[in-house]
Design brief:
It is a single chain. Helices cover 24% and strands 34% of the residues. The protein is α+β, with helices and mostly antiparallel strands and 203 residues long. The chain has one domain (3-201): Nucleoside Triphosphate Pyrophosphohydrolase, CATH 3.90.79. Strands 1, 2, 3, 4, 5, 6, 7 and 8 form an eight-stranded mixed beta sheet that branches. A three-stranded antiparallel beta sheet has the order 9-10-11. A hairpin with a 2-residue loop joins strand 1 and strand 2 (56-63). The longest helix is centred in the middle third of the chain and has 13 residues, at 89-101. The chain is globular, with a radius of gyration of 16 Å.
């Protein structure tokens, strides 16, 4: 897969909920935007960064530290909550990615955006933005926000060879959820759903 392939794929209509559904936990529903808006959600932007690694194009992820909160210890994309100075959620994604892992906007090529997603347990509306670089830039981790980073070859996500159910502790108790399994980590929930849509673009 090449940069040209990526650009071509993002000219197509997004799979949206059809891309999310395979990785959607059982307690989630596909909500309409009007329904989500009625919940007055917090808003966030995340960066889905792709880069040329040893196994072709890889997807950058990060492990959040353990803390007293809904997403403690989970695998996520760099990103976070909207601030008024951001003006757009795309700017939020870039700002947070720089603050958390040191990704600089000027070193990244914007590829496009994926579909918005709603996270019920924390009441967040999230917009994912996709970027690319020919190599992984040098990362600088914010220790309070990031335990470490990892990456998954895009081919392994797309062929779904690392996809199987997992038992996880959620706000609703222990549940069996669809998840990607990589290097001892379980990637599920919103992060997996975003990866699911990304993989659906190439199917």
């Amino acid at each position: 897969m090449t940069l040209s392939d990526l650009k071509t794929v993002f000219k197509q209509p997004l799979p949206g909920i059809k891309g999310h559904q395979l990785l959607m936990p059982s307690y989630r529903n596909s909500l309409k935007l009007e329904t989500v808006a009625s919940k007055n959600p917090k808003r966030a932007g995340v960066l889905v960064h792709l880069f040329e690694g040893v196994d072709g194009i890889e997807v950058l992820l990060m492990k959040r530290p353990e803390y007293d909160g809904t997403h403690s210890g989970q695998i996520s994309f760099p990103g976070g909550k909207f601030e008024e100075g951001d003006h757009t959620l795309e700017n939020t994604a870039y700002r947070e990615a720089f603050e958390e892992v040191g990704l600089r906007k000027e070193e990244l090529l914007s590829i496009g955006a994926l579909s918005w997603i709603y996270i019920p347990p924390s009441n967040f509306y999230v917009e994912p933005y996709v970027t690319y670089s020919p190599a992984l830039p040098e990362l600088v981790l914010e220790e309070k926000e990031v335990s470490y980073t990892l990456s998954i070859p895009l081919t392994r996500i797309c062929d779904r060879s690392i996809l199987r159910d997992a038992e996880v502790m959620t706000k609703y108790g222990t549940l069996s959820v669809p998840a990607f399994h990589w290097q001892g980590e379980v990637i599920w929930g919103a992060t997996a759903m975003i990866l699911g849509e990304l993989s659906a673009l190439f199917s």
